[in-house]
Write a structure and sequence with these properties.
2 domains, Rossmann fold, 15% strand, binds pyridoxal-5'-phosphate, alpha/beta, 6-stranded mixed beta sheet, 4-stranded parallel beta sheet, 337 residues
């Protein structure tokens, strides 16, 4: 791959396992379902942010920053892994929490990822709005100004789509790893199912595949926006990721496949399909999926199989992006179990 030019600090424990979900495949009586265990990337409960942030921290270390600043939802996994890498590298970390999910209970504000941030010594800030990516990024600049006035050297990890998706390179890497694993086992992969949020993961997967001349279709399950908005987001981010490896013409309109049938009432909000998916994954495969991302994506996988989208002799890979700690912030939704 031609992205060796980007500095990277290695944290992810790779290759992550590729496992057959034998019980779930049998239960649904469809294709063979596999899981790419990116929930096991290590470092403070792992998940997809470990691969993504390796590239941001490469840049952070190259620039000699001493304070890392970022933003996310209250139960952001991105914030947790940012804090974890900062801890390991001896940097300070400040996190801005956006108010993205309405009407949550105490566990949401105190447990899960919030608790872990506190343990790692992060300085926390509040941002009152939930859906204002540019406003949230602007507020990070205010924090950076304060750090500078205090004599520090801040680095802001922005999330709005005006910035190049450095983290997507981590998912270009993941695809190299996955295709090697499949080759070793003589396994033909017919489809990949992934969460689609900021689209660093979805976009990186597409760039990883197409840059290796693989036409495997990728099903992005919307976890934040309706399909129309998400389609544009993925196209934009995948193309921006392709530009990072000097392959501008790699991604086409018909590469983008998004499904918002599992979004429920919205970002971080549960519905029946999610509740079923979380329990099926745990009960049949001892796979722990979270209510915000991997659970909705599991619901998407199950839904696509039930709709007969795949043939029985096909092999489908579910990308488990982690998010485990957020489960403990959502104990309220499981009260009836
Ligand atoms: C952030 C996150 C996602 C979404 O990844 P994007 O690259 O932002 O699309 C999916 N799953 C988990 C567990 C996450 O933390």
């Amino acid at each position: 791959m031609s992205h060796d030019q980007y500095p990277r600090v290695r944290f992810a424990q790779t290759p992550t396992p590729l496992e057959l979900m034998a019980n779930l495949s049998k239960l649904l009586a469809g294709p063979d379902l596999y899981v790419k265990r990116d929930d096991l990337t290590g470092l403070a409960f792992g998940g997809n942010k470990v691969r993504q942030l390796e590239y941001y921290f490469g840049d952070i270390m190259e620039k000699g920053a001493d304070t890392v600043i970022t933003t996310g939802a209250t139960q952001s996994n991105h914030a947790r892994v940012t804090a974890a890498m900062a801890s390991k590298l001896g940097l300070k970390c400040e996190v801005q929490h956006e108010n993205r999910v309405p009407d949550r209970d105490d566990a949401y504000y105190e447990s899960g990822n919030v608790l872990l941030l506190k343990l790692m010594g992060v300085r926390l800030h509040d941002f009152p709005v939930g859906e204002d990516e540019h406003g949230a990024d602007a507020a990070l600049e205010d924090i950076a100004d304060r750090v500078r006035r205090e004599g520090g050297n801040p680095y802001v990890i922005p999330l709005a789509p005006t910035h190049p998706p450095l983290g997507a390179l981590g998912y270009v890497d993941m695809i190299g790893e996955l295709l090697d694993q499949a080759l070793e086992r003589g396994l033909r992969i017919d489809a990949i199912v992934t969460p689609s949020g900021s689209a660093s993961t979805h976009g990186g997967i597409l760039v990883g595949l197409r840059s290796r001349e693989s036409n495997i279709p990728v099903y992005g399950i919307c976890i934040r926006r309706p399909a129309d908005a998400q389609r544009e987001r993925v196209l934009d981010r995948a193309r921006a990721a392709a530009r990072l490896i000097q392959r501008q013409d790699l991604i086409h309109d018909d590469d983008i496949n998004v499904d918002d049938g599992y979004l429920g009432p919205g970002y971080g909000l549960p519905d029946e399909q999610l509740m079923e998916a979380i329990q099926l994954a745990a009960g049949k495969e001892a796979l722990i999926v979270d209510p915000v991302y991997s659970g909705k994506t599991m619901a998407g996988l199950i839904g696509l199989v039930r709709q007969g989208v795949f043939e029985k002799d096909q092999n489908v890979v579910f990308v488990h992006t982690g998010g485990t700690p957020a489960l403990f912030a959502y104990t309220g939704i499981f009260k009836d179990l």
